[in-house]
Amino acid sequence: MNSLDSLLKTNDELQRLDLEMESFLKSLEKRVLELQPDFEFTVNIKNNPYKVEEAINTFQWDEQKYPKNQKTIEQIMEKITEKFTSTKSNLKTKSDDYQSECEKLKQKMKSDSEAASFMKVDYREIVKRSTQLMVKTDYLTTLLCFVPL
Amino acid sequence: MVENFQKGYKELVEGMVLPLSAEQLDSGEDEKTSLWKVVVMAHKKDEFINQARTNFRILAKEYDENEILRLPKELKEKDDLKKSINEKRENLLNKNCKAFYSEMYHALLHIKVLF
Description:
The structure holds 2 protein chains of 2 kinds. By secondary structure, chain A is mainly alpha-helical. Chain A has one domain (2-116). Chain A is built from 4 helices and 3 strands, in the order αββαααβ. In chain A, a hairpin with a 2-residue loop joins β1 and β2 (48-51). The longest helix of chain A is centred in the middle third of the chain and has 44 residues, at 73-116. The model of chain A has no long low-confidence stretch (mean pLDDT 91). Chain B has helices at 2-8, 45-56, 65-114; strands at 23-24, 33-41, 59-62. Chain B has a two-stranded antiparallel sheet. The relative contact order of chain B is 0.09. The model of chain B has no long low-confidence stretch (mean pLDDT 92). At the A-B interface, α1, β1, α2, α3 and α4 of A face β2, α2, β3 and α3 of B.
């Protein structure tokens, strides 16, 4: 009874892992293609890159990575689950880091768009050439006027 | 509009604008707008800004030295950030994602054959 239980459990686990990994790969594929539409996905087998279709057609159990002769299915699944979990968190850290840099740039671009609302060229570049004309004292101040032509 | 502005800027706030202080700063970089500076009495600057908007539909703002001093630093920061983003993007896609995809696809194939 015990072994039937564990067989059913393993089967459930396998299904869950299969679904989760497949959806992870699909979403990774989608996100990568958004960033780089001509990205080529490959599967590295024994340090050689294979196209996905080739990898499926020439599939052989990788005894080195997943020694099924020495380990039980549960142990192999555990190993794959661990890898999957660490890959997900690793990817999240890296992509969060990338996103936060993009966000920083967006913030910095805000001052540009403010400047661009006055003139097509950055007016600060023009003013920079004439700072000697600018008067600023306790009583006097200089105003910049954007005159439509 | 430029002619009207040149003639009329002094009267926008009576007696509070420095005569002959209007000077064009740009050299025609923008075909729709030209940039001028005028010197006014500091306590009347808001009134001038309002009058310029109402009478001439001209946008005016006070010169801010810090804004100009910050510019080279800002440009450099932006440039550095762009470079770093490109580098990170390249790494993320061609190193991390490539490796993650490959590793997980290979593992998934093993899961599939276990069914």
